[in-house]
Design a protein that fits this description.
Structural class: alpha+beta
Strand content: 35-45%
Number of strands: 15
Distance between the termini: 26 Å
Number of helices: 6
Helix content: 25-40%
Shape: elongated
CATH superfamily of the largest domain: Haem-degrading domain
Number of domains: 2
C-alpha cells in the first residue's frame, strides 16, 4: 500500500501527457470577484477616498470592474490599462513606472499592450508560479496606495489558492475500496479507490485523463474504438453499452495504464475482486 501511495503522489505531480498543446490556468469570474472584494476591503480599511478596480484574465481580457463612489471617471480605463500591462508582462506596473522615471522614455512606445500603462497599481495574480490574471487599481489617495490596494487584492486571493497536502489514513483507504469511494478531491485532480466485480459500461471522458494503478485481480480492458448506444451522463462524460473495435489487453496487479481525455475505454471482462486506484487529472 505504501508503494501505491508513493506512486500516486508521483502521478499527481506529473505534467500533462499532451505534447502539442498546453493548459493555461486563468481566473474565473468568481475568482475575479474574490480578488476585487479583497482589494475593496483593504481600501476601506485604509480609508481610501475611492478607486476603480479592474480584473483581467490570463489573456488580458477584462472580466470584472468596480468603480467606488467618488472616483474620477477615467479611473476605470486607467485601471484596465494597468491590469492588462501587468498580466501581459507578468510584472507589477511599478517596475515600468520606475524604468520610465529613470529616463528610459522609449518604453512609452512599447507596442505590445494597448494601452501600455506604466503607472503603479497593476499587479499580476500568481497561482503555483503561473500568471492567472491581474488586478489594476486607479483613483486611490496616491499612486502608492493604488499599488497597495492592488497588491493586497492579489495577495489575499493567492493565499486562498495555495496547494494543501492531502492525507488519507489506511483504514479510510481500505473502507474506500469496499464502497468504490473518492479519497481525495482537489483542484485539477481526484483520487478514487475503485472496485469492480464485473464488466461495466464503456466510458469516454471529455475533461479528465484517467490513470489506473491495479492493486489486485485481472481484467480484459479495451481502449479506443466506438461507443455502442452512447448517452451523456454529464456535460463531460459519455457512456455506452460496450465498445466496437479498439485495442484489447489483459491488465493485472501492478499494471499502470493512462487513458487520455477523449479516448473511450471499457472493462470488457473482470476477474473479481478487482481493485485499483484511479487518478483523474483535469489539468
Amino acid at each position: 500500500m505504501r508503494i501505491a501511495a508513493s506512486f500516486i503522489a508521483l502521478l499527481v505531480g506529473s505534467a500533462s501527457l499532451a505534447a502539442d498543446i498546453t493548459s493555461v490556468p486563468t481566473l474565473t469570474l468568481d475568482g475575479a470577484k474574490s480578488v476585487a472584494a479583497a482589494a475593496i476591503e483593504y481600501a476601506h480599511s485604509k480609508s481610501a477616498p475611492g478607486g476603480a478596480i479592474a480584473i483581467v484574465d490570463a489573456a488580458g481580457t477584462l472580466i470584472y470592474l468596480e468603480r467606488l463612489d467618488g472616483t474620477f471617471l477615467n479611473a476605470a480605463d486607467i485601471s484596465v490599462g494597468k491590469a492588462r500591462t501587468a498580466v501581459l508582462f507578468g510584472k507589477p506596473t511599478r517596475v515600468f513606472e520606475d524604468i520610465v522615471n529613470k529616463g528610459r522614455y522609449a518604453m512609452l512606445d512599447v507596442p505590445a499592450v494597448a494601452p501600455f500603462t506604466p503607472l503603479q497599481g497593476g499587479v499580476p495574480i500568481m497561482v503555483s508560479g503561473k500568471v492567472v490574471g491581474a488586478i489594476g487599481v486607479s483613483g486611490a489617495a496616491s499612486a502608492a496606495q493604488d499599488d497597495e490596494i492592488a497588491s493586497a487584492g492579489a495577495s489575499a486571493f493567492e493565499k486562498t489558492q495555495q496547494a494543501k497536502v492531502s492525507f488519507v489514513p489506511r483504514d479510510q483507504v481500505d473502507a474506500g475500496f469496499r464502497t468504490d469511494a473518492n479519497l481525495i478531491s482537489a483542484p485539477g485532480f481526484r483520487v478514487n479507490a475503485s472496485r469492480r466485480d464485473g464488466p461495466g459500461e464503456a466510458e469516454l471522458h471529455l475533461a479528465d485523463t484517467d490513470i489506473f494503478y491495479v492493486l489486485q485481480g485481472r481484467a480484459t480492458f479495451v481502449t479506443g474504438g466506438e461507443l455502442v448506444q452512447p448517452h451523456n451522463v454529464s456535460a463531460t462524460e459519455i457512456r455506452g453499452t460496450q465498445l466496437s473495435g479498439g485495442e484489447e489487453r489483459r491488465i493485472g496487479k501492478g499494471d499502470v495504464i493512462a487513458i487520455p481525455r477523449g479516448v473511450p475505454h471499457w472493462f470488457k471482462q473482470v476477474d473479481a475482486p478487482f481493485t485499483y486506484y484511479v487518478v483523474k487529472d483535469a489539468g
